[in-house]
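User: I'm curious whether this sequence folds into something compact or stays loose and floppy. Could you predict its structure so I can see for myself?
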Amino acid sequence: MKILGASVLIAESMTMGFAILLAMKDHSSAAIIYGCVISFLLFVAAALVRRPGGFVIGSVMQIAMIGFGFVLPSFFIIGVVLIGLWVAAIVVGRKGEAARAALLAAGPKKP
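Assistant: Here's the prediction. I'll summarize afterward.
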């Protein structure tokens, strides 16, 4: 779950970087700074996923990414897709960790 979550957050940070490039043409410097801060915080959240509150911080950053849709309206759609990836990473990660725990509990198989 931690690896999947961190991977999604890094991908979102890169996506936000490309969105900043799109925002440079027509938007104010405040919008560009907002995008840079979100991109940086997504990168930091990826590092914090291993800690207890990391997934909460990652979830808050998902809301900030949707908020960037007010700067670039197409980012509402991109943000929803990325939130879907975030939720999928959490769900699949939990299932993977449960399967791993079950295998470790079963112990090694004897021939």
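Summary: Residues 45 and 53 are 10 Å apart (CA to CA). The helical segments are 2-26, 29-48, 54-67, 75-106.
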